[in-house]
Structure formats: C-alpha cells, structure tokens
C-alpha cells in the first residue's frame, strides 16, 4: 500500500468515527453505493480531495468534492465544528503515516477547512430558508382552510 493510500484509509476511518457507532460500521463496511450513499460519497470525495491536496489543487475538482461532503454533513445536523472536523482529520492521518505534515500541505488543509466552513454556513442558510418558506406555506394554507384571505 502506498503512503497516499494509507493516508486516505486513515482519513476515511477518522471521518467515519464522527458518526454514531452503529452507523459508522455500516458506512465503512457496505460498499454498494445504492445501499450506502453516505459511505460512497465519503470515500469518493475524500479520495478526490486528497489527490488535489497532494497535487495541483484544481478548484474545479476541489469545489464539488468539498460541496458534496459538507452539504451531506449540513443536512445531517452536524454542528459547524463537527461538520468540518473531517478536514483536520487529514492532518492527523498524514502525521500518523509519515511522521510529519509538510508546511505546504498544512497550509492547504487550513485553506480547505476555511472553504468547508464557508460552504457549511451557506448550506445551513439554504436549509433555514427552505424551512421558513415551508412554515409560511403552511400558515397560508391554514388561513385558506379557515376561510381567511391569505
């Protein structure tokens, strides 16, 4: 196993630990993307992010991979810290495998964390807007049912 594969495996394991025990086991073991879309999304997008962090940091590949992970964690009601903690798990995984985290990689990880936090806040804002629209729609429907003018 290459160092990059070992780092990826540890990063995935660290990310899975953020889920409840029973769920973490399922997410890590079930490989069918239809039976386990969350686990599939984690593996696929963490792989892309690692490749880009170790390579050219192509924003056209980083942005959608990060978005998929953060959006998923935002709808799962992770706190902001827990939602982006997976990014910092990479630093620990690199250290465990290689014994050091190069400064250039540490800087990229920090930048990725900031991007993840911005994306998380954007997703949460969208969720709150959707909830507010639904509440307004229900209130209008209730008023209509009671014969009031909307």
What does this 3D model show about the protein?
This protein has helices spanning 3-16, 21-29, 37-54, 59-75, 80-98, 103-145. It starts with a helix and ends in a 5-residue tail after the last helix. The longest helix is centred in the C-terminal third of the chain and has 43 residues, at 103-145. The chain is an all-alpha fold. The protein is elongated and about 70 Å long. It has a single domain (3-145), classed as Orthogonal Bundle (Globin-like), CATH 1.10.490.
The overall average pLDDT, rounded, is 89
Percent in strands: under 5%
Global morphology: elongated
Name the poorly predicted regions.
none
Return the structural class: mainly alpha
The helix tally amounts to 6
The CATH class is identified as Mainly Alpha
Largest sheet: none
CATH architectural name: Orthogonal Bundle
End-to-end gap: 64 Å
Q: Could you give the order of the helices and strands?
A: HHHHHH
Output the CATH topology.
Globin-like
Rg over alpha carbons:
19 Å
Total domain units: 1
Q: What is the total tally of β strands?
A: 0
Helix content: over 70%
């Amino acid at each position: 196993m290459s160092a990059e594969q070992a780092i990826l495996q540890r990063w995935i394991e660290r990310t899975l630990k953020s889920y409840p025990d029973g769920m973490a086991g399922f997410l890590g073991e079930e490989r069918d993307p239809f039976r386990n879309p969350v686990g599939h999304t984690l593996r696929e997008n963490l792989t892309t992010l690692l490749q880009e962090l170790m390579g050219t940091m192509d924003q056209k590949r980083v942005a959608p991979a990060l978005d998929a992970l953060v959006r998923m964690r935002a709808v799962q009601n992770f706190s902001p810290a827990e939602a982006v903690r997976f990014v910092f798990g990479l630093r620990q995984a690199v250290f465990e495998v290689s014994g050091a985290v190069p400064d250039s990689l540490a800087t990229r990880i920090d930048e990725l964390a900031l991007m993840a936090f911005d994306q998380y806040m954007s997703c949460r804002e969208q969720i709150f807007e959707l909830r507010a629209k639904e509440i307004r729609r229900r209130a209008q429907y209730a008023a209509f049912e009671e014969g009031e003018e909307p």
